[in-house]
Amino acid sequence: MMRLKLALLVVLLAAGVARATPLTVLGPASIVPGAKVLAAQFTARTGIAVSVDGGSRRKVLDALAGGNSDVVLLPAGDFEGLAGVSAATPLVAVPVGVAVKADAPVPDISTPEKFTAALTAARGVAYADPSAGTSAGRLIDAMLNDPAYARVHRVPVKGLAVSGLASGQAEMALQLLPELANNPAVRLAGPVPTGLAVDFSAAAATTSHDAKDAQAFVAFITSPDAAAAWKAQGLRPMP
179 with 220, same domain? Predict the structure, then answer.
């Protein structure tokens, strides 16, 4: 039924007048590659151009507040009490990954027990300072508060966790996996084996110049048809 509704919506949009300017979709870097793949598919189906751009959480929120976005993709928690958006729709879970410097041995983190042992043995474990307000930083900090990680040398850093590797403060970094996957300065050990992930949602901006197109894009990227593109980026589509 959902696929039939989506197909009908796409047909209706394709029959309409093309937008003078592309839909503007904003989200953090961790989710942009998959969003770009789906934007191209959406344009091919509907003829509606879509521009996808990435940046920090603050950049996305500022653009939304300034009326400069049609659709925003953010951690689900960021939508709580957020003004300027329609109801958010669950999108994907973005796994937290583990990385070391490019010239360092890759630790075995294949099981939760080996993961804990690797963190404990590391000279330092860098992650985003939770005081900065990022969902990943808060999530990782909460995990490390478990007594099982009591002996881990925690290194909260301002900005990206990998900066702790570059500075020599840490031997391991915990950061959203897509941000690590294509970084030549690090080697990816894999995702946290406990399934630790940040849930993302999508919402149309209430200031969008074309609410119909914006809602259609949200419907498309959260539909079953989008699942393969998200999975190809290592993300888990939300049910």
Answer: no
Give strand pairing partners of 237: 92
The CATH number of whichever domain residue 132 belongs to comes to 3.40.190.10
3-state secondary structure 62-116: HHHHCCCCCEEEEEHHHHCCCCCECCCEEEEEEEEEEEEECCCCCCCCCCHHHHH
125-128 and 172-176 strand pairing: parallel
Over residues 27-59, the pLDDT tens digits come to 998 999 999 999 999 999 999 999 999 888 889
- Does the reported pTM lie above 0.90? no
| Both structure tokens of 141 | 């900090």
Residues 67 and 123 in one domain: no
* Boundaries of domain holding 86: 2-92+199-237
Q: How many Å apart are CA 9 and CA 25, to the nearest integer? A: 19
d(CA 61, CA 85): 11
Residues 138 and 64 in one domain: no
Q: Which residue has the tokens 């197909």?
A: 7
